[in-house]
Structures are given as structure tokens and as C-alpha cells.
Amino acid sequence: MAEALFYVLGALCVLFAVGVVRARMPLFSVLSLLGSFFCLSGIYLLAGFPFLAATQLLVYAGAIMVLFLFVIMLLNLGDAAEQDKHAGLSLSGRRLFVGSASAALLALVGLAAADASGQFSAASLPTGRALDDLNELARLLFSHYMLPFEASSLLLLVTMVAVIVLAKRQRERTRAGAARAGERSPEELAASGAPR
Amino acid sequence: MNVPTGHLLALAAVLFGLGVLGFLVRKNVIIVLASIELMLNAANLSFLAASRHWSQATLAGQGDPSAGPVFALFVILVAAAEAAVGLALVIALYRLRQTVALDGVAELKG
Q1: Rounded Cα–Cα distance for residues A14 and A16 (Å)
Q2: Which residue has better confidence, A17 or A22?
Q3: Given this model, what pLDDT does residue A135 score?
Q4: Nearest-angstrom CA–CA distance, B47 and B65
Q5: Residue A62: helix, strand or coil by DSSP?
Q6: For residue A60, how far is the Cα from the chain centroid?
């Protein structure tokens, strides 16, 4: 039963992934990405990782998807962006060849791996508890993986600052940059009335 | 679920291949970012498949099954950061050029 569900979810996941690559509009691409995330979350659940399945849904389907959709709506692209020739493909011959060749190669490697490592018995799995036991995960994160954990918090901080700097309006950014460098324009000085 | 590890890895490889294809072939930058997310998810799936493989009792002591979920968690975190920065770049690009097509963007080519 669970096996059949895995294969159904896997096939759906691949179909959604094909949809991501060949969707005409970015909106449909992102929506099929959402479907692929849901299928993967189900696979995580079946494989014995309930916490990561929940994280997948919360972070990917909840946060990242909303970010994607928000940007698509914000940019107001309309149909014009995709109604050009080649249906949105940059068919520059060589790139298409390299892309399909590497995709086919990776898929072949995967299928070879599937052939080679056939032995897996769920009966020998430790039953009754999840493979991503939350206590164990937390203990590892705060002991063995302490440094990466702290580095990731730093990464999130840097990301936040970078996003604010990048997504701000150009005008405000230059003014902020000038103020930071201590070079305020004469107009600004006069407007604020601040004595130098 | 009694699925062999290889089948999980095969699914991950197919997803990664599709991500590579989308990354190289599409020119809409939002679809390119979605393809990157697809590749990161494939990496996550293979981490979890390996973790599940090494947690079998018959393979006890040969691998570290607890490393998989931890690294999958880190990959999810990095994916979130990457999506945020990437989409901010998309907004900056759109403000500059009024387009999201990657073909015409070669400012950094030198």
C-alpha cells in the first residue's frame, strides 16, 4: 500500500517537475512547483521523516511559494513577457544540447543506482519512532552541528540585509548611501537646517 | 514503506535532471529560480534516502543516519535564503530593464 503510494507520488512529482520546466507562464511554473513540493512532502512522510515533511510544507509551500507568487504579482508581467518566439526557451543550440544531455545523463545515473542497490528491507528499520526524531535532531543541532547552525543564523541575517538593500528603490538607496558616507547634498543640508 | 533506496535516489536524480534542464534552457528568470528550487529538493530527497538506508539495523555502525535530516534542514534554510535574494535580484532587474528575460542581460560579461 505504502509502496504503491510512493510510486504514485513519485510519478506525480516528476510530472509536476516537467510542468515547472515547460510551463509557458511563470505563474503556472510556480504552481506546478508547489504541486511537486506537496508530493515530495508526502514521500518524506512515507519514508519516515514526519518532521521534515512538515518543514517542507511550512517553509517551501508556505513561505517560499508565497514569495514567488508575491514577486510575480508585483512585477505585473502580463502576457507580453512570454508571448515571444520559442515559447520562452532560449534555444541557443549549445545550451539546449548541454541541458538535455546533462539531464538525460543524470537520469541514467539515477536509474543505474536504482538497479545497483536493490536491497532495502523496511523490516530492519527501527520501528515505532521517526527517523528524524525531534529530540535527537535538536541535540545534534546544538552540539555536533553547533558551528553550521550559528553560521546559518548569520546567513539569514545577511540575507535579510541584502534583500532590503536590493529591493529598495534606487532613489532611496543612493540617498541612504550618501548619508552613510557623510556626504549630504547642499539641498538636503539646507532642508534639514542642520549646521555642519 | 518497503521501497529500495535506489528508487528514491532515481527519483532524486530525475528531479535534479529536470532542474538542470530548466535552469539551462528557460530564459524567464523566475522559472530559472524555480528550477533551482527543484534541484535543491532533489538533493534533499537523496539526503533523506541515504539517511533511511543507513538506519537499517543490518547496517548499524557503518554510516551516520542522523546526518541526513540535519543536512536536509540546512538545505531548506539555504533554499529559503537563496529564494529571497534571487527574487530581490529579479525585482532589481525588472526595475532596471523592465524585463525578466535573461537573454538580454549581459552587464557583467565585461
Answers
A1: 5
A2: A17
A3: 87
A4: 10
A5: helix
A6: 7
Alpha-carbon torsion (A1, A107, A111, A52), positive or negative: negative
Residue A196 has pLDDT above 50, yes or no: no
Q: Give the mean pLDDT of B85-106.
A: 84
Residue A169 — left, alpha, or beta (φ > 0 → left; ψ -120 to 50 → alpha)?
Answer: beta
> 13-72 in A: which are within 8 Å (CB) of B?
13-14, 17-18, 20-21, 23, 26, 29-30, 33, 36-37, 40, 43-44, 46-49, 51-52, 55-56, 59-60, 63-64, 67-68, 71-72
Helix (H, G, I), strand (E, B) or coil at B101: strand
Model pLDDT for residues A106-146, shown as the tens digit of each residue: 777 777 776 666 566 666 666 656 777 888 889 989 999 99
Spatial CB neighbours of A36, under 8 Å, sequence gap ≥ 6? A13, A16, A17, A19, A20, B15, B38, B41
A183 vs A192: CA distance, rounded Å: 14
Is the distance from CB of B71 to CB of A50 less than 8 angstroms?
Answer: no
Closest alpha carbon within chain A to B42 = A40
Q: Which amino acid is at A40?
A: L
Say if residues A126 and B57 touch (Cβ distance below 8 Å).
yes
Interchain contact, B25 vs A159, CB within 8 Å: no
The answer to whether residues B71 and B110 touch, using CB atoms and an 8 Å cutoff, is: no
Q: Are B79 and A64 in contact (CB under 8 A)?
A: yes
* ipTM exceeding 0.85, yes/no: yes
